[in-house]
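haha ok so turns out i had the wrong file open the whole time. this is the CORRECT one, sorry everyone. sequence first:
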Amino acid sequence: MNALTVKGVDVSYGAARVLKKFSLSVETGKVTCLLGRNGVGKSTLLRTIVGQLRQTHGTVSLGERDISELKPFERARLGVAYVPQGREIFPLLTVKENLETGYAKLPPMQRKLPAEIFELFPVLSAMLGRRGGDLSGGQQQQLAIARALVTRPRLLLLDEPTEGIQPSIIKDIGRAISFLRHRGDMGILLVEQYYDFARVLADRICVIDRGEIVVSGSASDLGEAEIKRHLTV
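then structure:
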């Protein structure tokens, strides 16, 4: 079953058409990776899925429900979780308080921090009282992913989670994504620039260029040269 279906979506900034009849699907229990150079529409797609941008044509569906006209908070309540580029944690809140902002969509009985987020990112358990702004970039990225997981998502959107992160934490993030995939209860859309990180995790790879998918297929079937040809400047 598809966790996400984007069908024939157009998005423009003024006169500039950024996404052109764009279609993409993400299966529950699978990782779909969207690769592409800077400025080709990757972040625009994620912002459209979460409702921060509005498409002029096409539809966005979560499961079988069309969410194209819903506001961002309504999409979050239905199970869309977004880890944006730049992380956007609250620097003056503690780690614990940042995590607890994920409670907003949950009923009172579910408002507790899942033990698994500390199993995936053990460093956070020792930093619950520290302000988010005092964490390193890699620790903030782990916090941002953990905050998204607090919401118990059906669809997890990750916008370049490896950007500017030290190698040891990139490995931790990769292990977390792999664990979530194998758990099988959410679809994961991973936006990346780096093929070597994506190919280890992805079930399906799509390459975007100038607002359109130019290469798409199973990660095991696509050739490295074919993919990298569209990633070089």
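The chain has a mean pLDDT of 93.
again sry for the mixup
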